[in-house]
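To close the section, here is one more complete example, presented without commentary so you can practise reading it yourself. The ligand is zinc ion.
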Amino acid sequence: MAVKKLFWTDPYLCECDAVVTSAEGNTVTLSHTVAYAFEGGQQSDSGTIGGQNILEAVRDGMEIFYHLPDGHGLKTGDNVRVAIDQAKRYRIMRLHFAAELVLELVYQNFGHPEKIGANITDEKARVDFMWDGNISETFPVIEPMLKDMTDKDMDITSGFEDETTERRYWEIKGFAKVPCGGTHIRKTSEVGRLSLKRVNPGKGKERIEITLADYKREPKPPFCYFDC
Ligand SMILES: [Zn+2]
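Output:
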């Protein structure tokens, strides 16, 4: 049985109880987890398993392998607490959805250029396109649209397209339905204010880099079950 990925059913959850389902050397697997493993350009979460720091989280098929420090002492069958840095995860979720909106607005308003890369950390997100010219030409069009969408409290739904293969999507009714296995916020207002910057990573390629403009006034996550 692969790990139950609670970061999908509740992306705001920052702690859970779990049973260690295997422990070989420094690598463990779990019955349940809140700790996301790098996938689709979204950075892994920082966190702990049974108080031991997660050094690396690797997704392999439907399983997640967590690498822990030497001497972690966990054994198969142990009951553990899994916890993540929720503030970091929430910045990742905001930047992830900002990248989703930027990508979709470029697609919808500029003839669906080819996307050649994307990456999301808790500090910034980027989306790379095949693009002749300077992609900042899109900013006067997409920035007011981004502001309008984040000002409105539009619902974002996420779910399984196919649960057996873990194919996920997010959807804003009347705007877009997009396949993605990342962790998504529930309201467009949570994205907050953004800054867009143009970067030229090479001939014929253009990058939009996204940062959170209101870092100091960062909204708190809507709720958490635990004091973390
Ligand atoms: Zn996504």
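Once you have examined the tokens, check your reading against these statements. The longest helix spans residues 86-109. DSSP finds three helices and 16 strands in the chain.
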